[in-house]
Amino acid sequence: MARFRMLGAAIFIFLFFLFAISYCISQVANDGDYCLSCHNKDVNLSKKFLHPLVKEKKCRACHISYDNSRHKEGDEPVFSACISCHSEEKLGRSHPVGDGVIDPNTKDTMTCVSSCHIPHGSDYKYQLAFKNNMELCLSCHKDF
Fold first, then answer.
1. Using CA atoms, how far apart are residues 93 and 17, in angstroms rounded to an integer?
2. Is the full-model pTM beyond 0.85?
3. What gap in Å lies between CA 31 and CA 33, rounded to an integer?
4. Residue 142: band (very low, low, confident or very high) from pLDDT cuts 50, 70, 90
5. How far is CA 144 from the centre of its chain?
6. Strands 108-110 vs 98-103: parallel, antiparallel or unpaired
7. What is the pLDDT of residue 18?
8. Which residues on neighbouring strands pair with residue 108, listed in sequence order?
């Protein structure tokens, strides 16, 4: 009987440490300071208009398909990350986005961040890629 108690205790301790190690690793990977220790050039925190989650250094809130084991972003489409907080209806109000809409600049599906917005932050309101609407629109619609 004592053997089973010892075995049970050993299994419990093993599982506890396994859980603790997994938790610590996940916390490090979820910590924005950890991400920014390498990606500080990609995410310029000195921009005038930062996404609120960037200000809070909550990288994993948007980078939801990040794979800790390979240190690599998965195939999660940008648009689906955006609509997890912003309603799809609201996102498509100023310009159509999504399947079937092609961005002339990237020749790929038009998303919020394909040509219009800079997701981490910008020096322009609403994290726009251009200083005003005219420059923004004319970046694609050159016929006007």
1. 50
2. no
3. 5
4. confident
5. 34
6. antiparallel
7. 56
8. 103
User: Average pLDDT of 56-80?
Assistant: 75
Of 33-42, 83-92, 117-126, the least confident: 83-92
Which pair of tokens denotes residue 81? 């990350």
The CA distance from 117 to 95, in Å, is 12
pLDDT at 75: 62
Sequence-separated (6 or more) residues with CB below 8 Å from residue 110 = 95, 96, 97, 98, 101, 102, 103
Asked if the model's pLDDT at residue 36 lies above 50, the reply is yes
DSSP string, the chain: -HHHHHHHHHHHHHHHHHHHHHHHHHHHHH-HHHHHHHHTTTS-TTSSEE-HHHHTT-GGGT-TT-BTTTTB--S--HHHHHTTTS-HHHHTSSS--EEEEEETTTTEEE-TTTTTB-SSEESSGGGBSSSSHHHHHHTT-TT-
What number of other Cβ atoms are within 10 A of residue 116's Cβ?
22
The Cα–Cα gap between 98 and 80 comes to 10
